[in-house]
Amino acid sequence: MDRRKFLTTSAFGLAAAAATGLMSAAPARAVTGSGTIVDLAAATPQLSTLVAAVQAAGLVDALSAPGSLTVFAPTNAAFAALPHGVLDGLLADTDALTEVLTYHVSGSYYPSSALLGQRGRVPTLQGGFIRVNANGPGVHLNGNTRVTSPDVFASNGVVHIIDRVLLPH
Fold first, then answer.
1. Which residue range(s) make up the domain with 137?
2. Beta strands 157-162 and 69-74: pairing type?
3. Which of 9, 34, 69, 158 has its CA 20 to 30 A from that of 102?
4. In the chain, what's the furthest Cα-to-Cα distance?
5. Would residue 53 count as lying in a domain?
6. Residue range 97-122, pLDDT digits in tens
């Protein structure tokens, strides 16, 4: 399946959100920011590695398209914390890079207000799920990844900046 084409399919996100058990209602409606997710990431110096990876995977157009996406965006420090050679290996393997990057994107809109007080799963465009625990202080993903800057709103969704790179299981 072509993940780049799949990324632009919004119907998947709505159907998957209903099946996750994270929320009983439909995902929240987007609060529109002035730029796209890619525009906002490119304007954020701490996301420059993510931007380079998105470009290398050919996902710029998909993440700039209209829609209501949620992106969990790892910082440069998160990429630097990967074991030696992992980032270079991903950048050299477009399919593997696309798998990892689409695991950070949901086709549905989840601002922090939809996550806080919840525990469940968020569907990803990679096809897997991110485990969310927001019952305590803050929002944690897959157990040990923390949302450090929630709710960076874009015209086509919301970005939550995170402190680790999420790897599909």
1. 3-162
2. parallel
3. 34
4. 42
5. yes
6. 999 999 999 999 999 999 999 999 99
Q: Is residue 168 part of a domain?
A: no
Encoding tokens for residue 15?
Answer: 């159907």
Is 108 within a domain?
A: yes
Q: Which residue has 């990967």 as its token pair?
A: 82
Direct distance between the N- and C-terminal alpha carbons of the chain, in angstroms, rounded to an integer: 18
> Helix/strand/coil (H, E, C) string of the chain?
CCHHHHHCCHHHHHHHHHHHCCCCCCCCCCCCCCCCHHHHHHCCHHHHHHHHHHHHHCCHHHHHCCCCEEEEEECHHHHHCCCCCHHHHHHHCHHHHHHHHHCCEECCCCCHHHHCCCEEEEECCCCCEEEEECCCCCCEECCCEEEEEEEEEECCEEEEEECCCCCCC
pLDDT tens digits for range 74-93: 999 999 999 999 999 999 99
Q: In this structure, is residue 149 part of a structural domain? A: yes
Number of domains making up the chain? 1
- The CATH code of the domain that includes 40 is 2.30.180.10
